[in-house]
Amino acid sequence: MAISNSPFGPAYERWLQAPLPAGTHMSLLHWVNDAVMALFFFVVGAEVKREFLYGELKSRSAAMLPMAAALGGMLVPAAIYGLCNAGLPTAGGWGIPMATDIAFSLGVLSLAAPKAPRSLVVFLTALAIVDDLGGIVVIAVFYAGSLNLPVLAGGLIVWLLMLAGCRRNWQSAWFYAVGGILIWLAFFYGGIHPTMAGVLTGFAMPAVPGKDGREGLLLRAEHALTPVSAFVIMPVFALANAGIRLDLSGLTGLASAPGLGVLAGLVLGKPIGIGLAVWLLTALKKASLPEGLTMKHFWAVGLLAGIGFTMSLFIAGLAFPGSPVLMTAKTAIIAASLTAAILGGFLVNRVSR
Description:
Layout (H helix, E strand, L loop, with lengths): L8 H9 L10 H26 L6 H25 L17 H11 L5 H25 L6 H19 L5 H18 L5 H9 L12 H25 L6 H5 L4 H27 L11 H10 L4 H11 L5 H27 L2
Helix pairs in contact: 2-5, 2-8, 2-9, 3-5, 3-11, 4-5, 4-14, 6-7, 6-8, 7-8, 9-13, 11-12, 11-14, 12-14, 13-14
């Protein structure tokens, strides 16, 4: 953002749009969003699989509350955005406010409330992981281009072979890496966003230990790539995608239908959807609140879930590629995420005392 509003702004834009390699239709921005982010989504896929196998989502009873909260936290923001943009060409951006940035939301929680109950941290982690899974489904189903079915069928065959290797507990990193690249190519040319190849690769890797007793390949790969994702990939993605011009036209765009839809969806829709889902589930006695937590904790953490940032920016790029509306959406995402972080951090600090 600082670069975009400095004298280096035009050079920054040219740098992002420059073909790489020269003469191709793939710009540096495309490589970041289509290829580099595949590793980010691999880590997301690995986290989801690990949580369902060994973590908080393993038990149906324990998983019910964060899963219901995540569903409410996706549906209500999408509905709010849809109401703000009903009948408009911008209605396709409904997926933008559905997202929660797991790294930033947990980071704000740890900074604002270092003494927060462990059960609250676990709840937000599980909620954000289910939210990521929902975002993956939305991207794959609703933001795909025209499909080339024969090419996609080839990718499906490769994935099935990888699943067979996982079932036989093959621990070869090369086998899954090559398979992941082939799926990426199939998705790239088949009409599905190629980053989804990272998710499928994560799902297909074995999590159980190998015959040599070493930790499962999935867990080793996740441990190796999580720091790369957090400290390299996410900053590079933010550098490439968070550049917005802080001029009058950009700020007035917040009052437009897509701007209001994103703002209200993240700042209001997230806590309302999450809070109502938790309240309804406990009122119907389908789940109970974790020990030491009250409804105040869930309203507060619902605001932290309104920090969309990475996934919201990613979906915005898919919803409005090359459109002037994209800048409005980015501005609204950053404004909403900052607002949710400040208000959520304040509230979670108060209720955790």
